[in-house]
Each structure stands twice: as structure tokens, then as C-alpha cells.
Amino acid sequence: MKAVIFDRDGVILDSESINIDSAIKAFKGVGITIQEEEKGWIVGRHPEDYKKLFLEKYDFSYEEFRKIQRKTFNELMGSVPLFDEAISLIKKLHEMKITLALTTSSTLQNTSELLENTNLENIFDVIVTFEDCEKRKPDPESYIITAKKLNLNPEDCVVIEDSAIGVEAAKNAGMKCIVIPNEYTKNQNLSKADLIIDSADKIDINLLNNI
Q: Which residues contact 13 (CB under 8 A, 6 or more apart)?
């Protein structure tokens, strides 16, 4: 293992709840009450990636939905809890001089604000955000770009993810992947991961080197 790459949403930031809540509110704003199983279409995805699924089932204005969803998401963002165990792990690995990267489908501005608020702004050697990629996860592009920026082979990298979409992206990029499921991803098919654990505090340097 020569580098550890962290996903952001669902790993560092417990943001899946506001991802779902903002979508539910936006759908209600366009006259739709989504079903419980349809929430699974939202988990881990950007609205552009679940748009087609809902438009095939419901008649609504996506533009109006997106306007409400974006406004609600931004309002809730300031109160999103953090995964303290993940932040502690990042800081410990940094102290050990381990190469670290952050790979997210979120924007650079949003990510920069998060890192500043959590005192992580000077820790990651490489940060790859929405602006760096043409395709979002589960496409492996973001992780392939991360490896190139690190000047490392993908097989030398271990990714920390939380969802099936993220695991698929990491594995298709040729990387090892540890998944930490949360409330919203625990029932997904995570079988492609190299290891499934329940908390970042279970991860140490020996585990990373021997995965």
C-alpha cells in the first residue's frame, strides 16, 4: 500500500441523510411522494444520475425539482454531522507520512469549505472533485485520475468507501477497497469490496498493508 484514498460523502461526512431528505422535499414540491424502495435510487447518487429513473415513472419538471433540492441541500449542509472515527484515522495516517487523497463527486468549493471546517485542508496530497471528471461513480474515472495525480499504479492504492457505487468505481479502477457501510448503504450489495468493517477505528496500518 502506497496511498489511501478517501471518499467524502458517507465516509467523512454523514451526508446521505440530507441527500435523501432534500430529494424527498423536492419531490413533494413537484407533487410526488416517493415510495420507501425508491429512496434506494437516491443513495450515493447525484440527482443527474437518478433523474432518468424517476422521469420514467413520474411526470414532473426536473428543473423545478432540482431548484428545490439544491436549495434544501445547501440549507442542511451546515448541520451535517461528521464521522469522527474517519477524521481521526486520516490525521493518524497523515502523522505517519502516508500518502493520502480525497476523491469525491462533490464540488471543489463545497469540499474546500468542509476541509477548512474540519482542519483537514493541508492533509491530502491530492484532491479530485466533480470539476476534474466527466463521469461520476460508479464509473472508475475519478479513481483513475486520482492514481495518475498521485503518480501511482492503481493496485498500490487502498480506497475507503461507503456504498456499492463507490466500491464498483474503486474496484473497476484496479484498486483495493475497504467499505464502511452506514445506515443508508448497509443493505446494498457490497460483496465486491476487499473488506467490510463497521467503523474507521478498526483500520490501522497493518490492515492497510495486508489487505
A: 80, 82, 83, 114
